[in-house]
């Protein structure tokens, strides 16, 4: 099934200027080559930015509903091809077929949602302090934007950026993760199919240090929208600061699920297993800390271990598999290293902890679902993002202690509390330092119509999804209209 793609620049598929390519392989079976893709550098980024700059004047002048219609049409094609593309996603990125379908569904939902925003795109009308004068606010596109994405949601996350950029009137250069270039190419090709004008959306595939860095450095880029690791995000933030570029960052996290004594235990266990091990823990909202009240820690731990023991680990194309491979060898080594660190730090390994290498796992990157007990707040496995199928249980004695423990990290994306006590729910809502807080729902599973983003090192204050997604790609303009026929001076009373 190998499919090769170049870059998509100014409405055409073209090879990298250097002619170089790189391969994408199936993480469940590294013998399977998914395709060869343009290995781009600064010269390719230059071409793409030029194309985007050339398309910008006409695109920003195109009526917003007309811009939005392309999203509706792209969403309809994605919907028709959902199952076919989901299978490709599972082969390229590894996650289970059900999860790949959900990734596509999230992208489809968001494309439709943003298509609707094209008929809204509201500003405000605001009364003036002077007679016969009125104010209104209008959104203005930021210009040519750079979109840099990770591999864990290879369709949904790119669409979280492409869709609002398209509606807002920005033109884009999209640099997807090097682990999922086929998903990116197929997505962009759908925009070609629906006739999005040349140059409005350009794709450069390749590695972060070459294509990604060149995009961030390019003077023609007015804003960078980045989702990925804290390490790379920090670097991008510094570069953008010195060149006065706008920059929005969606970075890592260390999410927590709190279980209080009055929680419905089976529900909390199911949510913990799903939150920790879906996508093999490779979600920015993954439940990597279980903060459990001591009164129910015994039964909670027993039930969780029982649930985890029933998880089948294997190729995501197998419908019985719950835990698919991690993305690549480097990530596998990193996760195994964290497991060793956890043991060295004194956490108790309750289950998992090893790479699976039997016949059906021989050619992929499989790690057994891993649960630690006796995790304490100072441990590295309790504070650093592992991004793999690893979670740890911490014990607490009160809701206040639970909230303090949850807040005791440098990240703040998603936190859940399982309790039926309304006081606990509101305390959590008010005191948790997380961008997304759930009561009796898992830390993962964000919906597209609500703002998504985190506090502390998870980001820099921007939100994706929801109507707030437009703020990333537009500037607010304040328009004052005076129809009094005379010079009126504000504040001169
Ligand atoms: P990563 O930071 O390694 O890579 C992300 C993207 O940045 C890739 O496209 C990569 O090629 C590019 N890149 C790498 N070096 C670059 C450089 N020097 N300049 C410009 N671009 C560069 O992250 P990853 O491994 O792809 O993804 C995992 C991380 O993403 C995790 O930390 C996870 O929490 C985070 N993530 C966050 C969210 C969120 O919304 N908060 C969502 C998904 C993933």
Give the gist of this structure.
The protein has 493 residues and is of the alpha/beta class.
Which term fits the overall shape?
globular
User: Alpha-carbon distance between the termini?
Assistant: 74 Å
> What's the rounded overall pLDDT mean?
98
- Count of DSSP strands: 23
Task: Count up the helices.
Answer: 14
What's the CATH H-level superfamily name of the largest domain? Aldehyde Dehydrogenase, Chain A, domain 1
| Major sheet details | 7 strands, mixed
Which ligands are bound?
nicotinamide-adenine-dinucleotide
Q: Any idea what the radius of gyration is?
A: 24 Å
The CATH architecture of the largest domain: 3-Layer(aba) Sandwich
Q: What class do helices, strands and sheet pairing give?
A: alpha/beta
State the strand order across the main sheet: 14-17-18-13-12-20-21
**Under the CATH scheme, which class of the largest domain?**
Alpha Beta
Question: Helical amount among residues, as a percent range?
Answer: 25-40%
What CATH calls the topology of the largest domain is Aldehyde Dehydrogenase, Chain A, domain 1
The unreliable regions are none
* Estimated share of beta-strand residues: 15-25%
Integer count of domains = 2
């Amino acid at each position: 099934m190998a499919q090769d793609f170049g870059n998509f620049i100014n409405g055409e598929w073209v090879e990298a200027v250097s002619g170089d390519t790189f391969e994408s392989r199936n993480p469940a079976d590294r013998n399977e080559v998914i395709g060869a893709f343009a290995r781009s550098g600064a010269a390719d980024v230059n071409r793409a930015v030029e194309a985007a700059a050339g398309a910008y004047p006409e695109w920003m002048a195109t009526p917003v509903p007309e811009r939005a219609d392309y999203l509706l049409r792209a969403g309809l094609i994605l919907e028709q091809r959902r199952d076919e593309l989901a299978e490709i996603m599972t082969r390229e990125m590894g996650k289970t077929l059900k999860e790949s379908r959900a990734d596509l569904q999230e992208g489809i939902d968001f494309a439709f949602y943003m298509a609707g925003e094209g008929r809204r795109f509201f500003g405000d009308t605001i009364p003036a302090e002077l007679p016969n004068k009125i104010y209104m606010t209008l959104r203005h596109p930021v210009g040519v934007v750079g979109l840099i994405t990770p591999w864990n949601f290879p369709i949904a996350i790119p669409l979280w950026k492409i869709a609002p950029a398209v509606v807002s009137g920005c033109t884009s250069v999209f640099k997807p993760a090097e682990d999922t270039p086929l998903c990116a190419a197929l997505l962009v090709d759908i925009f070609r199919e629906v006739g999005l004008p040349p140059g409005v959306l350009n794709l450069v595939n390749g590695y972060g240090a070459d294509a990604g860095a060149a995009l961030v450095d390019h003077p023609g880029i007015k804003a960078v929208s980045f989702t990925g690791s804290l390490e790379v995000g920090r670097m991008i933030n510094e570069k953008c600061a010195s060149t006065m570029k706008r920059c929005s960052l969606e970075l890592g996290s260390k999410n927590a699920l709190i279980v209080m004594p009055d929680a419905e235990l089976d529900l909390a266990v199911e949510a913990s297993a799903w939150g920790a091990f879906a996508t093999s823990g490779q979600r920015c909202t993954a439940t990597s800390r279980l903060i459990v009240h001591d009164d129910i820690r015994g039964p909670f731990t027993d039930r969780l271990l029982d649930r985890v023991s029933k998880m089948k680990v294997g190729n995501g194309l197998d419908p019985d598999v719950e835990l698919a491979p991690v993305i690549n060898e480097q990530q596998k080594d990193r996760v195994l290293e964290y497991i060793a660190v956890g043991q060295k730090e004194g956490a108790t390994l309750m289950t998992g902890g090893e790479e699976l290498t039997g016949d059906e796992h021989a050619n992929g990157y499989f790690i057994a679902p891993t649960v630690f007990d006796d995790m304490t707040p100072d441990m590295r496995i309790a504070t650093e993002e592992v991004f793999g199928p690893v979670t740890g249980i911490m014990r607490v004695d009160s809701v206040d202690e639970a909230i303090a423990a949850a807040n005791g990290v440098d990240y703040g994306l998603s936190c859940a509390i399982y309790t039926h006590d309304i006081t606990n729910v509101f305390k959590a809502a008010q005191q948790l330092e997380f961008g997304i807080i759930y009561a009796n729902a898992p830390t993962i599973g964000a919906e597209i119509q609500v703002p998504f983003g985190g506090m502390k090192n998870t980001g820099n204050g921007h939100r994706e999804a929801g109507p707030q997604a437009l703020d990333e790609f537009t500037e607010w303009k304040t328009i004052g209209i005076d129809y009094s026929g005379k010079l009126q001076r504000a504040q001169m009373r």
